[in-house]
Automatic annotation (TrEMBL):
Name recorded for this polypeptide: Alpha-galactosidase
Quaternary structure annotation from Swiss-Prot or TrEMBL: Homodimer.
Domain Alpha galactosidase A C-terminal: 195-277
Transmembrane regions listed in the UniProt entry: none
GO molecular function, one term: alpha-galactosidase activity
Biological processes, Gene Ontology terms: glycoside catabolic process; oligosaccharide metabolic process
Domain of life: Eukaryota
Assigned EC number: 3.2.1.-
Keyword match Iron: no
InterPro entries: Aldolase_TIM, GH, Glyco_hydro_27, Glyco_hydro_b, Melibiase/NAGA_C
EC category name: hydrolase
Family note: Belongs to the glycosyl hydrolase 27 family.
Species for this entry: Magallana gigas (Pacific oyster)
Entry's Gene Ontology cellular component terms: cytoplasm
Source species taxonomy: Eukaryota, Metazoa, Spiralia, Lophotrochozoa, Mollusca
Amino acid sequence: FGIYQDFGTKTCGGFPGSEFYMQTDAETFADWGVDYLKFDGCNSNLYDFPSGYEAMGFFLNKTGRSIFYSCEWPFYKIVSGLQVDFAKVRKTCNLWRNYYDVQDSWSSVLDIVNFWGSNSKIFTKYAGPGGWNDPDMIILGNFGLSYEEERVQMAMWAILAAPLIMSNDLRHIRSSSKALLLNRNLIAINQDKLGIQGILLQKQNGIQIWSRDLSFNRTAVAFLNENSDGMPRFLSFSLVDLKLTSSTYNFTEAFDMKTNILVTRQRPLKIKVNPHGINLYIAKEMHL
């Protein structure tokens, strides 16, 4: 059971906010059995965010109820050109937004991915069990994404160790979208016990390569084709390109776990990636 509230005098929709009433609101939420609080930042002073968000966290903990705390603190700072103390954010919040709300469009999803790519080193540093960067909701099953683009969002949210919170109408969802949302292999990558967020390795000619370290000495590797010219890209990458240090790996296609490719120092990975599409693999070191 989740609820929305705001740090300021009013919520973004104009309803009463929590400023000056945080202890009362925290106790009320606990009495109601709330499990998840999204705490927005409209109608407030940005310079009060550190103390204000910490205060709500304190009052939530004081209730004795385990309430997951989702903060908008970094987003408002970033879009205002202010520095974010991510160490303090992580200490205070369980989840935090860094960028604009996702919209039901390819351009919105790609903007979020690109923003994460530009900031992946700092974001990754503070992500892990207990605190996570939030690129916003999963919009699979709506109207703005093609099937290939839905694959991109689901795969990238797995690479980013992002919360898989859906924004769709499950009563009227396409079967293909449902299958992606329920894909156990993608969920397993997303929920990997190490909790390491993926990073952007390189971006060139509209092709992004992402990597995420997984448990059991595995690595998830994603190849995203953001080009809009309608043509697939035929690509070849060495293990050095992918920052993989052993001599031999088995690459298993992650969506269905059926296709396997052996890649060595002498044999590069050769793939085809559809426009607005993604290939996602799990690389496992081999000892031949």
